[in-house]
């Protein structure tokens, strides 16, 4: 009898737990590599699609990794959205495995006008940081919307309506950035950052990329003493008074560089490769770009 009572209790407990557990979502699943793209996708699909962003707020897209459970779920997604152009260095093997398993994929880099890195030490590689130019993000949205509308279980009309509204916000952002940067004298539109991330912004809005503390296109590289010396000379020649540190990386090297330049240089933080959490100042793409625009305009204006 005691055994029967124990068995009954266990079965009851199992039933209670089963009843309390959340049912599996019957919505289409879109897995997104970076949090910038995750925000863009979420604005397009709303609650009609389950959007899972792999990259945590504040992470480095070149170096972040995922768990075995996340990798397995990636292979079961209805669609995988990634940046491409070599950005997701720590994730690429899992993206390749998902594609090999037959998961539909959208690579944002395939939709943009790709630029090579402006740095000669990057070896002519493609620059993956297209989102610093909102016009390129609009191109990604235009290419992604038909893919999302065609997914089973998606309300295509709702996606179209959300996409039109979000595209309008991106167009307004583009106009505001154009106005803000036009007020900076062309001689002062010179950018120095942790690594080469502003090529698209520079091309679109007429900036010069004077240099970067970290050579090449990846944060996984490290600067040498000669790299820093060359950059100090470039800063002196350009007369730069503000240099920019990215929020996803420590700014220690930037401060060392400011001291080595032996001029009155301000180090200003920008949000470039990752969004933040809700309290971090850049919780979404539009906010990130507006904050960066204001800081760049303030730092480089007379």
Give an overview of the whole structure:
This protein is an alpha/beta fold and 302 residues long. It folds into 2 domains: 29-174, Rossmann fold; 184-300, Nitrogenase molybdenum iron protein domain (Rossmann fold, 3-Layer(aba) Sandwich). It is built from 10 helices and 8 strands. It has a 4-stranded parallel sheet with strand order 2-1-3-4, with helices on both faces. The protein has a two-stranded parallel ribbon with strand order 5-6. Strands 7-8 form a two-stranded parallel ribbon. The chain is globular. Mean pLDDT is 85; it is low at 6-23 and 216-221.
Labels describing this entry:
alpha/beta, 2 domains, 8 strands, 302 residues, 4-stranded parallel sheet, two-stranded parallel ribbon, globular, Rossmann fold
Q: How are the strands ordered across the major sheet?
A: 2-1-3-4
Mean pLDDT: 85
| CATH homologous superfamily descriptor of the largest domain | Nitrogenase molybdenum iron protein domain
Overall number of strands:
8
- State the helix count: 10
Uncertain runs with pLDDT below 50, 5 residues or more?
6-23, 216-221
How would you spell out the order of helices and strands? HEHEHEHEHHEHEHEHEH
| Fraction in helix | 40-55%
- The CATH topology annotation of the largest domain reads as Rossmann fold
Topology, pairings included?
Layout (H helix, E strand, L loop, with lengths): L1 H19 L8 E4 L2 H11 L4 E4 L14 H7 L4 E4 L9 H9 L4 E3 L26 H16 L6 H27 L7 E4 L5 H7 L2 E5 L12 H14 L3 E5 L5 H9 L5 E5 L14 H16 L2
Parallel strand pairs: 1-2, 1-3, 3-4, 5-6, 7-8
Helix pairs in contact: 5-6, 6-10
């Amino acid at each position: 009898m005691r055994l029967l009572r124990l068995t009954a209790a266990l079965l009851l407990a199992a039933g209670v737990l089963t009843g309390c557990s959340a049912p599996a979502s019957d919505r289409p699943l879109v897995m997104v590599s970076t949090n910038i793209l995750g925000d863009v996708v979420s604005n397009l699909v709303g609650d009609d699609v389950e959007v899972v962003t792999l990259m945590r707020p504040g992470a480095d897209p070149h170096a972040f990794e995922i768990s075995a459970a996340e990798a397995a779920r990636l292979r079961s997604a209805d669609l995988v959205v990634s940046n491409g152009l070599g950005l997701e260095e720590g994730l690429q093997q899992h993206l390749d495995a998902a594609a090999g398993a037959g998961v539909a994929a959208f690579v944002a880099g395939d939709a943009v006008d790709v630029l090579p890195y402006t740095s000669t030490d990057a070896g002519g590689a493609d620059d993956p940081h297209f989102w610093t130019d909102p016009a390129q993000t609009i191109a990604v949205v235009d290419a992604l919307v038909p893919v999302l509308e065609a997914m089973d279980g998606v309300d295509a009309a709702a996606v179209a309506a959300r996409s039109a509204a979000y595209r309008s916000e991106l167009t307004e952002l583009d106009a505001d950035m154009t106005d803000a940067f036009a007020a900076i004298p062309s001689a002062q539109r010179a950018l120095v950052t942790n690594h080469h991330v502003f090529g698209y912004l520079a091309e679109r809005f007429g900036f010069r990329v004077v240099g970067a503390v970290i050579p090449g296109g990846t944060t996984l590289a490290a600067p040498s003493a000669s790299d820093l010396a060359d950059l100090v000379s470039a800063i002196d020649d350009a007369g730069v008074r503000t240099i920019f540190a990215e929020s996803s990386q420590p700014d220690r090297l930037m401060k060392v560089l400011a001291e080595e330049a032996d001029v009155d240089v301000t180090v200003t933080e920008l949000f470039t490769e990752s969004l933040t959490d809700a309290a971090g100042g850049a919780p979404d793409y539009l906010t990130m770009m507006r904050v960066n625009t204001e800081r760049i305009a303030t730092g480089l204006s007379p």
